[in-house]
Design goal:
The chain is globular and about 75 Å long. α4 packs across α9. By secondary structure, it is α+β, with helices and mostly antiparallel strands. It starts with about 25 loop residues before the first helix and ends with a strand. About 45% of the residues are buried. The chain has three domains: about 210 residues, no CATH class; about 140 residues, 3-Layer(aba) Sandwich (Protein Transport Mog1p, Chain A); about 55 residues, Roll (Membrane-bound Lytic Murein Transglycosylase D, Chain A). The strands form four sheets. It has a seven-stranded antiparallel β-sheet. The N terminus is likely disordered. It is built from 16 helices and 17 strands.
């Protein structure tokens, strides 16, 4: 449920997948391959875009040439995830999500992220944190939710990455080393502070839309806060005031023009409280107030402040095994006696039951859809008739997609030139997303709250 992967996010704090600095032998190669596959599994696989990949490779080659370890080699993988994240393996395998690439506005900003990750490798931060990382455990069984309510709450509500992280001093050190590498490579040294500021604004916008602590949505809260890191990066950049100020904005924006924005419908996507999966052909709507998160392993949701959460995943169940038999087969413990019953949801055979943990109560639904069974786990700290009613209403929204819904195309970034008379507001109204258009446009383009556009500027909008 929660994949034990450590990621080094550029903001508000870095995390890294911890792989021992093993000798270059078959064992280390095998371990690297395993870690690489785990990363791909956690982040929706690789995003294939030769033009964008070539752009990142050219940036990396420049950075390596001026780094403290030009003998090290690096390989970058673009992850098909809307998360804003980047991290590295100690063997030089770099990962950048398309969510981060979509937030960046020039090559100098991207160079700052890559050089930050290179700095972790050069400074051998992973080796010093390896022992702590070994203590990280993989949450892989729903039974864990019932036996340990704290683990269960985290798995249901977050279930992304739960791991050891770099210390504050290591993060600041990587920021400073990275700024120096980027500056010596000819990139604007202020790229790091700009991108860190954009990431902070992005986190704040997510918090405003979804509620809660903006740092708790994607990153571990133990790391340096964004304002601290922005200030630190800017101070370091001033030391390279005579360096090049190359930003390479036009070329970079051209490389991300047409890139998928947000979730890829191939893996299902969230629209408000509704989840749609065109490939599998189904949809459902979460209860009022829930925020959904589509992870590689499951659809997760939570209602901030209400002590309620949900999880949806899919399993193979033999056709000859009834749903009631499956509910009682032991895949989840503490099923309450007499609570198992059969029903039909929009023509699909369904079974439901309740289960209890020490601090959580669970309403379970299993729905047979084609050759697979979809498992809905609704959890509440306080079991009430009202909560159970909302869970029952939610399951009733599970249905097949219409032909029009199945043909839904992904949202994409489009680069446009600001024309005379264009404003933030007029360009924002051209965005496919209907909520918080102006705020999203400003964050996407790294614009301050009062910053205006100039004719001829290149900006990003979101289109269908």
């Amino acid at each position: 449920m929660a994949l034990a992967v450590a990621a080094c996010s550029a903001i508000p704090g870095g995390r890294q997948i911890f792989l021992p600095d093993l000798p270059k032998n078959a064992e280390s190669t095998s371990a690297s391959i395993r870690e690489h596959q785990r990363v791909l599994s956690a982040y929706g696989g690789a995003y294939e875009d030769p033009k964008l990949h070539a752009k990142l490779t050219s940036v990396i080659n420049r950075l390596v040439a001026t780094s403290d370890r030009p003998d090290l080699s690096y390989k970058v993988t673009i992850l098909n995830s809307p998360a804003v994240n980047a991290f590295a393996l100690p063997n030089g395998q770099l990962y950048v999500t398309r969510g981060l690439l979509g937030l960046a506005n020039d090559s100098a900003e991207v160079a700052s992220v890559i050089s930050h990750e290179m700095a972790h490798v050069i400074a051998r931060h992973a080796a010093t944190r390896e022992e702590q990382a070994r203590k990280t455990e993989l949450i892989s069984n729903v039974n864990d939710m019932l036996s340990d309510p704290q683990v269960g709450a985290m798995a249901l509500a977050r279930s992304k990455i739960a791991l050891a992280s770099f210390s504050r001093s290591q993060e600041f050190e990587a920021d400073s080393i990275g700024v120096g590498i980027a500056a010596r490579s000819g990139f604007d040294p202020f790229g790091a502070s700009r991108l860190l500021a954009s990431m902070g604004h992005n986190a704040e916008l997510r918090a405003a839309i979804h509620g809660g602590d903006p740092r708790s949505l994607d990153f571990l809260s133990s790391h340096p806060a964004t304002p601290e890191r922005v200030k630190n990066a800017a101070v370091t950049a001033h030391q390279f005031a005579t360096a090049s100020t190359e930003r390479d904005k036009a070329a970079y924006l051209a490389s991300i023009n047409g890139m998928i924005y947000g979730e890829d419908p191939v893996d299902g996507f969230v629209r408000g409280r509704r989840f749609l999966h065109p490939k599998l052909g189904f949809t459902f709507m979460a209860p009022e107030g829930f925020v959904l998160d589509n992870t590689a392993q499951a659809v997760l949701g939570m209602k901030e402040g209400a002590g309620q959460a949900l999880r949806l995943d899919v399993v193979k169940v033999p056709a000859e095994q009834s749903l009631i038999e499956y509910l009682n087969s032991g895949w989840i413990e503490n099923i309450e006696n007499g609570s198992v019953e059969e029903l039909v949801v929009n023509g699909f055979l369904t079974a439901t039951a309740t289960a209890t943990g020490n601090q959580w109560a669970f309403r379970l639904y299993v729905v047979r859809f084609g050759s697979e069974v979809y498992r809905f786990i609704f959890a509440a700290k306080n079991r009430t008739p009202e909560a159970d009613h909302t869970f029952r209403e939610s399951i009733q929204t599970f249905r097949r997609l219409s032909p029009q819904e199945i043909s839904t195309k992904p949202l994409r970034l489009k680069i446009v030139k600001v024309q005379p008379g264009d404003t933030v507001e007029t360009l924002a109204t051209r965005m496919a997303l209907l909520d918080h258009q102006v705020e999203r446009f400003r964050v996407l383009n790294g614009l301050g709250s009062d910053e205006a556009l100039k004719a001829g500027d290149l900006v990003k909008i979101i289109v269908e």
